[in-house]
Structures are given as C-alpha cells and as structure tokens.
Amino acid sequence: KPYEQWITLLRTMLKDKSSLLEFKNNKWTIQDRFANIKKYANDYYKDELEMFKKDVIEILSERNPKFDLSSDKRSMSNVYNKTLSYSNLLRKAVAETLPIITSNYKEFKKCINTALNLSLLVVREILKNDNWEIWASLDELLPVLAEASPEEFLHQLEDKIRNNSSLVKQLFTENESYITTSNYSTGLYWALELIA
Asked: Which residues does residue 177 pair with via DSSP β-bridges, in sequence order?
C-alpha cells in the first residue's frame, strides 16, 4: 500500500487508547513488543513468518554504502549521502524481534517449527557472507544476532576462521577516523561476551 494509506491507518489506530502503537518524538513504536508478540503469537501462520524472515534478511544483509568512502570520510557518510536504505531504528527493531520470537516459539501454535527455526535460518543466511563490510554494517547488531541463535552465530564465525577468511582480521584492522579512530570489532566482542 502507498505511504498515505498506511499513515492514515496508523493515525486512526493511534486514537484508540488501547492501541499497541505509540508516536513520540516523530517516531512510531510498538508498545511492549515482548508482551504483544507473545499475546498475538497464535494469530501467525507459517507464510507470515516466512515473509518476515525474508524481510529481515533483506534489511540486515545490506552493505553499508559508507564503505564506498575512505576511512577518514566514513563518519561523515550522511553528508556524502552514503546511508543505509533502512533506518538504524528499523534494523535494530527487526533484529531484536528474533530472540523474542525464539524465546516464545511455543506460543506460535500454528507454526511452532517455523518460529523455532526462524532465528537460526536468518542468522545463517546473513552471516554466511564472507564480506567483512556486511559484518561491519551489522557491528552494533551482532550481539542481538548472537542472542537470537548463539550456536549458529558461533558456527558462522568458526567457519570464517577455519577457512582462513580475512573477514575477522579486517573487522579488527579496518577503521574509520574523524576526531577519534574506531574499528568494527566492538559488536563481535560484545556478541562473544554475551555467548560466553
């Protein structure tokens, strides 16, 4: 549907005080995602979770265009119009939904197996990529993916190390600098700490 139709529907829903939606600081959010996913889990079917899986993979597999820039210009990627297609808020929200679904898979009575395997399949599909720029684009989301499917996260990382992929090395050595210099290994550290 066009944006105009969606926004009209959302604004109508917002008028209902029992609505799940909230609009604050020019941002739409769903109130208490955990409780609402659990509450409405039985309303989902396999094909709907499959569509969600496809969308999550598309959203999180995007290579950040800031990597087209030299390391000293990456922190100014907005100025150069080198931004992700999807907002950081949306990327974070879809990533955080994975562990919620996984921890509540039994509530998805019409599609238990799909809900159970959703995170594993998403993490596998996204992290099987050997491109360090994809992993670096996920830097702050790597701990969430590790939480969603710790075994698959470790499997994909071990696979990169075992196959002498330069991915891990580049996450530690590539950087962006402006006032300070930062690399893209922080998310990996946090993910490993979370799993440990």
From this structure: 181
Residue 90: pLDDT above 70? yes
What's the farthest any 2 CA atoms get from each other in the chain?
56
| DSSP annotation of 45 | -
Q: What number is the average pLDDT over the span 28-46?
A: 85
pLDDT tens per residue, range 166-191: 888 888 888 776 666 677 889 999 99
Give the Å distances, CA to CA, from 165 to 56, 96, 130, 186. 25, 28, 7, 19
Q: Tell me which residue of 100, 105, 104 sits closest to 116, measured CA to CA.
A: 105
Structure tokens at 117: 């395997």
Express each pLDDT in 103-128 by its tens digit. 999 999 999 999 999 999 999 999 99
Q: What is the pTM of this model?
A: 0.85
154-158's contacts with Cβ under 8 Å and 24+ in sequence apart are 154/195, 155/124, 156/123, 156/124, 156/127, 156/128, 157/127, 157/188
Name residue 83's beta-bridge partners.
none
Q: How far apart are CA 37 and CA 168, in angstroms?
A: 35
Structure tokens at 70: 């030299």
